[in-house]
Write a structure and sequence with these properties.
Shape: globular
Number of domains: 2
Number of helices: 7
Distance between the termini: 47 Å
Largest sheet: 5 strands, mixed
Number of strands: 9
CATH class of the largest domain: Alpha Beta
Bound molecules: adenosine-5'-triphosphate, magnesium ion
CATH architecture of the largest domain: 2-Layer Sandwich
Order of helices and strands: HHHEHEEHEEHHEEEE
Strand content: 15-25%
């Protein structure tokens, strides 16, 4: 392919940084505005708590965005990727996903009347750091809320797949989904689906890229996406190659 047919790495990075900057500055300005209004007495006391809660949610989202940026920088060098692998801790699934679920539970309810349900309670150990898994979950749930239908449920489930010996973790939501031919592209850095742009104008197309890379670098795990237009069900499926069952808090070697 001729050089001028493909965007250079520098083009991609400067576009991403411009996009991230915009997405970080906007909510921060919103929070400053809210705080100014409260300090200057322009917000009725009955509405103060609600405005402060909304500002806190905006700050949390911004923190997650900056975390994605930090992970992106880690993932862009060999040494950085290696450092993620060397975080040799173990993660308990679905336990380590619960904080992300709790945060989005509130947001999903307030913004779109959606509910997040954790369907399984059996706990499994996988090799890989909980912070990475938390970031993966934050990105998946952010998408499920952003692109999912109002007043529907998002489900999180975990099961062992006998045939492959994999541990499967699935996040499902109902919504307009994505085109069949976008199914692999959505994991590329900077790619946003056609449908997504009409649902929400802002976004960097980076969330799923980070999920895929963190899962590969930190867990040797794979992620795939599926959409059924018949059931309107979008599924993100993570495959952990090996796992151990947790029993009564004891780590059992498989
Ligand atoms: N739950 C979902 N339902 C439908 N489409 C989805 C869903 N999750 C992701 N997608 C599609 O995959 C694309 C890439 O997702 P990704 O999270 O990487 O980027 P984004 O959400 O557009 O932006 P960012 O996460 O950087 O804010 C989205 O633009 C959308 O087209
Ligand atoms: Mg996203």
């Amino acid at each position: 392919m001729a050089i001028n047919e493909s965007r250079s790495e520098i083009d991609i990075y400067s576009e991403l940084i411009a996009n991230f900057t915009h997405q970080i500055i906007n909510p921060l300005n919103g929070v400053v505005g809210t705080l100014d209004n409260i300090v200057e007495g322009h917000v009725a006391s009955a509405k103060r708590d609600q405005r402060l809660r909304a500002a806190a949610a905006q700050l949390i989202n911004t923190i997650e965005l900056v975390r994605n940026l930090a992970f992106l920088s880690n993932l862009s060098t060999k040494a950085g990727r290696q450092s993620l692998r060397e975080l040799s801790k173990k993660s308990l699934i679905p336990r380590e996903t619960i904080d992300a679920i709790a945060f989005f539970q509130e947001l999903a309810k307030q913004e779109k009347g959606m509910e997040i349900q954790l369907l399984d309670s059996t706990q499994y150990w996988v090799k890989g750091h909980p912070d990475l898994l938390r970031q993966v979950f934050t990105n998946l749930l952010d998408n499920a809320v952003k692109y999912g239908d109002k007043n529907t449920a998002i489900t999180v489930s975990v099961h062992e797949q006998k045939k492959t010996g994999n541990l499967i973790l699935e996040v499902k939501n109902l919504g307009p989904g994505f085109d069949f031919n976008e199914r692999a592209k959505i994991f590329e850095r900077g790619f946003r689906g056609i449908g997504a742009r009409s649902v929400k104008a802002s976004g960097s197309g980076i969330g799923l890229f980070i999920c895929k890379e963190l899962l590969e670098a930190g867990f040797d795990a794979k992620i795939e996406a599926e959409y059924s237009s018949q059931s309107r069900e979008t599924t993100f499926r993570i495959r952990f190659p090996s796992f151990n069952l947790e029993e009564k808090g004891i780590y059992v070697e498989g």
